[in-house]
């Protein structure tokens, strides 16, 4: 019984090794790949596995297809324009890369989003997060200062929280609670209730002034 168990363990170990080898071979398979440098520059095509300046055969432009003959450590042996040489393998990808201008635009957009998130968190941290308190209900008008800009209604008094909806310039709402920076509002048109920044709301005092005049 013990020998049978040992034999089964040995067979299983061999199968696992074979599977691992097959996986490694598959992940490093030869074939067509594309130059995909992080900076969009050309990739140096070398006669030997060295970064010396005197072994550069050519420079392969970003996005160019090459044929990988085999892999050797951090290097790939490739065929390019009928010549065979070496390139650093980390600069190759299986999929054809986007034009570098597109990649740059995507990176710039991502950086802009990160910067906006950073500024939003900084702005959020300075706001009053104490509990809003009930006030005598009063009417307000949304005033963003920019016609195309909309004011957000949040599920909680937090700029990084869930946005329920947004209101255009001139929308009429009602404030039910508030603290120094936030107001809990009710939307009489669609029935929304949530939190908005007080600085985006202008108290509607026109009706009170008209009553006093009468």
Structural summary, described in words:
With 214 residues, this protein is of the alpha+beta class. It folds into 2 domains: 28-100, SH3 type barrels, CATH 2.30.30.40; 133-213, SH3 type barrels. The chain is 29% helix and 35% strand. The chain is built from 3 helices and 14 strands. The chain is rod-shaped.
How do you describe this structure in short?
With 214 residues, the protein is an alpha+beta fold.
Compute the separation of the termini in Å. 106 Å
Return Rg in Å: 32 Å
What CATH first level of the largest domain would be assigned? Mainly Beta
**Whole-number mean pLDDT:** 85
Major sheet strand order? 6-5-4-1-7
- What name does CATH use for the topology of the largest domain? SH3 type barrels
Count of discrete alpha- or pi-helical segments spanning 4 or more residues: 3
Helix content: 25-40%
Structural class: alpha+beta
Number of strands: 14
Largest sheet: 5 strands, antiparallel
CATH architecture of the largest domain: Roll
**Percentage of residues in strands:** 35-45%
Report the order of strands and helices: HEEEEEEEHEEEEEEEH
CATH superfamily of the largest domain: SH3 Domains
Instruction: Flag low-confidence runs.
Output: 1-12, 14-27
Domains, number: 2
Give the overall silhouette. rod-shaped
